[in-house]
Amino acid sequence: MNVIFDHILRISNYERLIILAELLIIGLVVYAILNFLEGTRGERLFRGMIFILIVGALVLNLVVEKFGMERVAFLYNGFLIVVLIVAVIAFQPEIRRALIRIGQTSIFSSRAQQQLTRTVEEVITAVSQMAATRTGAILVIEQRVGLGEFIETGVRLDAKVTSEIIKTVFYPGTPLHDMAMVIRGDRIVAARIQLPLAESGSAEAGNLGSRHRAAIGLTSSTDAIVIVVSEETGIVSIAADGRLTRNVSESQLRRHLKTALVETTPMIGRFRSGGGQEEEDSDDE
Fold first, then answer.
1. Torsion angle of alpha carbons 63, 64, 67, 71, nearest 10°?
2. Considering only 8-12, 47-51, 54-58, which range has the smallest mean pLDDT?
3. CB atoms closer than 10 angstroms to residue 100
4. Are residues 121 and 90 in the same domain?
5. Residue 104 half-sphere exposure, CB side, CA atoms within 13 Å?
6. pLDDT tens digit string along 83-119?
7. Taking 90 as the threshold, does the pLDDT of residue 46 lie above it?
8. Helix (H) or strand (E) holding 137
9. What is the DSSP string of 177-235?
10. Boundary-marking domain end, from 39, 63, 98
11. Is 236 helix (H, G, I), strand (E, B) or coil?
12. Domain range for residue 112?
């Protein structure tokens, strides 16, 4: 303990403003990375690596200063290089997603908006055709809150959003038609994803089927938008903020998806205008 206190006293003699600035920069970088990785498997991995590096560095400095173990310090530096290589491999999906986001910043915003507008039209086309054929489907539009914990339960696709792929996935009898599909930006991330169900006895869920209850359950705890096509009636529904609205027209669907994807603003409306109505009836799936 005396070694630790001596080390703290020595640090206090440094330029405090410089130390505070360094700690602030490091904290902001770590926060930004954790915020980017929120809800993914990479978040837990990154937290573990940060813990190991911080504890390792503190303990090593104290041990080296106390007992003069320069060889241990040399090995630790080599260990850091190995950790860096492992991190690049382990965080490959997250690094790829970060580069994609950088490519969608202001310089390329026009092109990115065109791609997302095309995505909206592809989703609308698929939903309209599935509604006409009464093909049951549940599509999740990821927003700011990451859905990594749910995506891990499904089958990863990482495919460009097209109406053909969406309709193929939900075609009755295909291996992936059951459960949900998650869309992130202009990519289909995964399908056959298990979502949490809202309690059947709750006021909002009522006597709804599993797809509609899953839509309410997910949007109650995240800012995702969920589109549901009933295989019993072909009715298109949208869930947001834990509330479900039925009989959503194509124009309403287009407006809300453009708000969510293209304009990148959180959807807080309740779809109360023309054509949409709060669901109170039962719809067995």
1. 120
2. 8-12
3. 14
4. no
5. 17
6. 778 777 777 766 666 666 655 554 445 566 777 888 8
7. no
8. strand 137-141
9. -SSEEEEETTEEEEEEE--PPPPTTSTTTTTB-HHHHHHHHHHHHS--EEEEE-TTT--
10. 98
11. strand
12. 108-278
